[in-house]
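Researcher: Next sequence.
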Amino acid sequence: MPTSQRSGAEAPEDSLAEENESLASESETETTSLTRRSRARRAPARRQKAAPPAASKPEKAAVRPATTAPKRAAKQLRSLVVLSMVGGLVAVTALPAFAGVLKSEESVTLQQMAVDDAQSLVVGSDVNATQLSRQSYSATTSEEIAKKKAAEAAAAAAAERARLSASVASTIQVDLSMVAPGSGAVRWPLAAYTLGEGFGTRGGAHMGVDMLAPAGTPIYAAAAGVVKVSQESYGGYGVAVTIDHVINGQRVGTLYGHMTYGSRQVVPGQTVQAGQIIGLVGSTGRSTANHLHFETYINGSNVDPYAWLQSNAG
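Model: Next structure:
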């Protein structure tokens, strides 16, 4: 231990100091004795053994950290500098090239792309060319398309009327020039009839009035309007026609049911006048006798059709 070495070195110095003081009073013969010589020779030997360990160890510990730490820091700094330089070179060279690629792609037109990617098609010489018929509309605006459709609808309606007129003429003789008697905006649908079940009968299930008449009796439009339904089978009504009217600012609808098959004279979308013939009395659908089932709607609600005719027909 360092402490024991230091104490061992100091002990001879103390004893030597004490001996020097005592030698000053001794005689010359005593000073040259062998005892004094032996003491003086042993003291320097002890001093040489204790001195070297204390001086050599601190020097080695101090030299090593001072040389390794700067070298490591220098290596790390050099690596960072090299990496930053490489990254800068990559950015400088890559970004302009990438920008050039984008610019060239944006500047290419569709025609240029078509020319670059164009493919050729070889057609056999024995293939015959066929002429395609264009069935789509040539109009470019919604108004022109609507006019075109309206014209086609009118032509189809005229063709349907002609077909119905031809079929009726071949089976049932009807004078299409006939009109209902009267001159008012509302007319009676039959010129002659016998009153049958009225509105609200059958426990409230009967929503119209039955007007009994022989088969083939002409049926007239009760008022001017636009045909909404014209069918050979309209549920329990059988052959039926419905017409939408506007009378005194009110939306009025009329229904004519149980007509004779093939007697309808109007088609959906057709405009009719008050008293115009629309069909003939029959017994189709849920019917047990020839009659006209007549209904009236005002603003979408059923009303008593016979009371309405009495108040408005003329």
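Model: Confidence is low (pLDDT under 50) at residues 1-38. The first helix runs from residue 2 to 23.
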